[in-house]
Specification:
By secondary structure, the protein is mainly beta. Helices cover about 10% and strands about 40% of the residues. The protein is globular, with a radius of gyration of 26 Å.
Length: about 625
Amino acid sequence: MSNAHRHPLDPLTADELAAGRAVLEAQGLVTETTRFPQVIPVEPDKAAVLAGAPADRRIQFTLLDTATGESADAVVSVTGAELVSHEKCAEGQPPYLFEEYDLAEAITKASPEWQAAMHRRGLGDRIEHAFCAPLAPGYFGREDETGRVIRSLTFLREDETDNPWSRPVEGLVAHLNLTEQRVLRVEDEGDTPVPADSGRYGHHEPRTTLKPIEITQPEGPSFQVDGSLVTWEGWQLRVGFNAREGLTLHQLSFQDRSVLYRASVPEMVVPYGDTSIGRFWISYFDAGEYLLGKNGNSLRLGCDCLGEIRYFDAFLADDHGQPVRVPNAICMHEEDYGILWKHTDLDGNAEVRRSRRLVISSISTIGNYDYGFFWYLYLDGTIECEAKATGIVFSGAGEPGVAQPHASEIAPGLFAPVHQHLFCARLDFAVDGQRNSVYEVDTVGIPIGEKNPYGNAFTWNATQLRTEQEAKRHANPATARVWEVRSTEHTNRLGAPTAYQLVPRPSATLMAQPESTVYQRATFATNHLWVTPYAAEERFPAGDRPNAHPGGAGLPAWTAADRSISDTDVVLWHVFGPTHIPRPEDWPVMPVDYSGFMVRPYGFCDRNPALDLPSAAHGHCDH
């Protein structure tokens, strides 16, 4: 189980993971009760990478002693086969282990208090197939909630194959200490009947009216792959994958000029707006608490991906730190994307060129939700990121037909609470090099008068964002607001700085109140934009360990210094994603909810870079 690396930014290999673990064993840091909640690469020094210098391959292992609950971060140099550092983890908990999911259910079902609650509700005969969901607890500073805590809600199933999310046992909450393997307390409130509606969704008789769509590329795809390096129609980049973020993109260049050094979605928070005892505390950090990459899917041809596909495997560490292969973790293919440009001249002669895009994607399943992360590269130099949320909405029970202020009824007696999916993209820009500045560009109307005698005039204003505090911004569709990253060293043929624009597709930011604990923990989600000067250690917008963290880490802590972001190596952090008021059409499985943003050239090219496209696959359009 090995894949050899040839570049400092290549993903970790199975051999490297095994070698790193062996160093820890030799140092006496691995015992029978040691587990590995997170194993991720340490990014090599940027300056060394840009200079083409050899890089030290390093891995950060988070170690958890399940007997004591103590955790530490250990950095191992695989290149030097040595331990670089070993430090006790600070505030917050490491992500959850897969084995802790089963442990949480076992602790809950063994609890006399939980069993008594089930019997009191007349559900004692349904305990065998009950599903006890392992759910991150948030943070509320309760005296008994120190160490490794998790909460569990109960759902009924007809058998082990049944959808567990359709029959919630409303008002029953088990609070658990995983290290001590005991129930802290059980809350048992109310007697709401369990909904009767079935949540099964994969067994319907398929319609027969759809005719096949076949995608063929008889000469093969237009991209070339050499290890992690991808070259396609003027684009060049490296594809990566790690246990926490999942899919990452590195050193994106267009027409041999740098655009982005690194792009990823390193965090997302899913805060719920319900006040019930079973949901007021829910605010999942799906990367920092559960790990997007470790929960990555093995993608399947014809289902997740369609066309002439190139797959990339990923190598991650399991709970015991042993390397495991995730086959087909990343899918890459080309898609036709309609018209790129067209004009019909005065004589009726039409010139038209079709667009296509390179699609690089991964999908992660975190409990009831599935998230697709799709990065698109276009022939005109545009980059797009799209998140696709699907899966099964989280639900509770209520009286059929009686409205609830924080949840909508999606099936008889089944209520899905309002919530948000707030993703944060980390965009390490390098527009024609590492020296960039950031501007906010708004279109503005001009009051009627000397400068606007006919009332029709409008213009645009570009305001430089000079410090971190100035760069805490919200999107504004009313002014078509974009954020422009300009080179401070290079200009185009018109004498203007070469630039790329971040074009948001805005929705609501965090709806929770500033006094709430989720606001303190997910402060990154309160702005659409943050800008920081590049710092290697600043990777996760909610901090390294959001699990059970009181808040304030990550972007709010870093930007408190109000550092300069002018003429420097800048990182843009962009928050996007849907605010979800569930609907009956979302049940029993939810159609994809799309969200995302674009990064497009603005004066980066001297003219339309797609003028040389052929008019069709064979050089002409049919008449």
